[in-house]
Amino acid sequence: MTIPSSTMEPGPAKDPAVGARRLLARLRDIMAGSGAAQDRLDKITKTIAHEMAADVCSCYVMRAGEVLELFATIGLNQDAVHKTRMRVGEGLIGDVAAHARPIALANAQSHPNFAYRPETGEDPFHGFLAVPILRGGRVRGVLAIQHAARRDYDEQEVETLQTIAMVVAELVAAGELVDSRELSVANDLVLLPSRLEGSSMNRGIGIGLAVLHRPQLTIRQMVADDPEAELARLRDAVDGMHSAIDQLLIAVGQVEGEHAEIMQTYRMFASDRGWLNRIREAIRSGLTAEAAVQRVQNDNRARLSQASDPYLRDRLHDLDDITNRLLQHLAGKPVTAVGGTLPDEFVLVARNLGPAELLDYDRRRLRGLVLEEGAAYSHVSIVARALDIPVVGQCADVLNRVEPLDSLIVDGDHGQVFIRPSEDIQEAFTRSVQARQRRIAEYATLRDLPAVTRDGTPIKIMLNAGLLIDLPHLHATGADGVGLYRTEIPFMVRASYPDVATQLETYSKVLDEAKGKPVVFRTLDVGGDKTLPYFPELGEENPALGWRAIRIGLDRPAMLRKQLRAMLMAAGGRELRVMFPMVAEVAELDRARKVLDLELARLARQGHKAPASLQVGVMMEVPSLLFQLDALLPRIDFMSVGSNDMLQYLFASDRGNPMMNNRYDLLSPAMLRVLKLLVEKCGAAGVNLSLCGEMASRPLDAMALLGVGLRTISLSAPAFFDVKNMLRHLDLRELSGFLDRLYDCADHSVRPRLRDFARDRGIPV
Ligand code: PEP
Ligand code: MG
Known about the structure:
Layout: H1 16-32, H2 37-51, E1 56-63, E2 67-74, E3 85-87, H3 91-99, E4 103-105, E5 127-135, E6 138-147, H4 155-173, H5 180-183, E7 194-197, E8 199-202, E9 205-213, H6 227-252, H7 258-270, H8 273-284, H9 289-304, H10 310-330, E10 346-350, H11 355-360, E11 366-371, H12 379-386, E12 391-393, H13 398-401, E13 407-411, E14 416-419, H14 423-446, E15 460-465, H15 472-477, E16 482-486, H16 488-492, H17 500-514, E17 519-522, H18 550-555, H19 557-570, E18 575-580, H20 586-605, E19 613-620, H21 629-632, E20 638-641, H22 643-650, H23 669-685, E21 688-691, H24 699-708, E22 712-715, H25 720-728, H26 732-740, H27 751-760
Parallel strand pairs: 9-10, 10-11, 11-12, 15-16, 15-22, 16-17, 17-18, 18-19, 19-20, 20-21
Antiparallel strand pairs: 1-2, 1-6, 2-3, 4-5, 5-6, 7-14, 8-12, 9-13, 13-14
Helix pairs in contact: 1-2, 1-4, 6-7, 6-10, 8-9, 9-10, 17-19, 19-20, 24-25, 24-26
């Protein structure tokens, strides 16, 4: 074990900011000096230990296979260098790498994750501070200091070590310590065709050549002598960036709704004072403007990527986008629409993307988007949906697997990506794209044909919607209305709970866009798998059976009242249909109805125009309600079956658990019996019955629904024409007779029999 020499130059500086500046200046000299990279790293660790008065300073570098190798140390056994290796996630060092965030402990040895390695001679050290070495958003290693004594590390020390880690990142990334090829997985294997699984964030199929979105600029200089000059450069770059974003907003301008709102939020981020102040502070600590911007973003990454809240995690991508933009302005290479050198048909591959970055690319040539991260309700997904670009997200490691201009197929229908696909796969997908285009052309004629079965029964096909950008589909398809407007979706993409005025604006726009077609507004259905960023984490053991939907509304009546108020006001003089989700007993409906009546009275008191008519309905999702139909039906105007939840509660089978996928079938005798009962009871009571779960979007399942007796279904827009086409080929009387023989059968599912029925009669399902 070597203890750092105490005879080096002057001791650690008293003022921490001065100390950090001095340390950075030293490191700059070492980095610029001659000698092998290993020697420079040795000197760097020695200098850090000295300047931070630490007993140990160690640097671990990431090697292929996600292994962290001890590359340099002062204070631990030199014999351990290049021998001690940890997996990502193993021990404290592995933990820092796994979560890309610092760990500071007064006594590391008592921590449960401490992994003792006898060869390092770590026994006498207690105080422990380690930070990730980050570059391009990836962890390249870990830098740690240790103290013999137990001690707390203050924020300034953590920040200083993080700043130093950026300098070390340059040395690691230069490829002298570890051959950069080792880290980029560029071996022959990678050139073979492969398929990656992700999750679908927008449907559709896109075929094109890969364009890798790597906005990361190489920061050549980390340390600056003149903070004032750097602050001035930052000021100019921020001004330049703001006016460029304004231009972009004008360019995408005329778009309304969430899309425009998202871009406004983005603009707000770019002017965020806290963010800019933190960059200024980092400059004052001795970094160049570029390094300071990057440094603040490394912090954001570490902080936000750990957030349990999906909204906050998504904001990270907006911040990445803005950071890259600012770096480009600092480098004097402001972004303009990326177009000139792109292939005619391309698929964009990125770790993640902000909404503005997506808009930088030429939309006419963009065929698909693949993201290593991404979430269905992230801003970029919403914008991509508005532009009708297929998106596969959560596609791990795609950036390492794809080379620029590789051919790619994005299968947004099944959440998969084909890399360098073989010719037969390419042909199959090309055929499917062509078939889809042909179908779209054929469907253009289907739009104006009536939704009537072959034997003359008219069917109402409604759409499920949740965002304003879903509404144009209403007219493009000729659907009968919106059978389910999920009000929680606009709540989920916002930063804070929308007030009455904001909700009123949204609901009014929905009704305006529907142009007189009926819209069923479902009150807030959050909880379970749908969390709101600004709602407390409840940590429920079983959220699907927990505090969700109408239960929240009844326990927080002010929230429900405000939502109903906004709906009533939006519908002034027009028809309003309100539906309550997850009702489990009639008493809950009665309580919700009372809240609605209070709001109706308030509306009249305040002289607002009342809706021209008001219909009240419930979602049929909880089986207990099936046993109260006689009390329920006289109280409601309509009912819509939520088959997604009904299947989950009927079969005690978690809808979000992949192990339960397809374990029980919607076309089981039990489910069909439930539907049959509802058809009979609602029919007798004169209550309109519909079904708005995913079931209605699958032609074979939709066929069964009509066979059981439903005459209204509500489905997602992409399924509209497939279902309409199916029903126009269907003889309902024949199917109904066929089904009558199946209700009592003991099959797991009648799906195979229904498939044969359809095939034998040429019904397209
Ligand atoms: C359902 O449960 O079928 C339904 C339509 O509601 P959600 O999917 O929004 O829970
Ligand atoms: Mg539901």
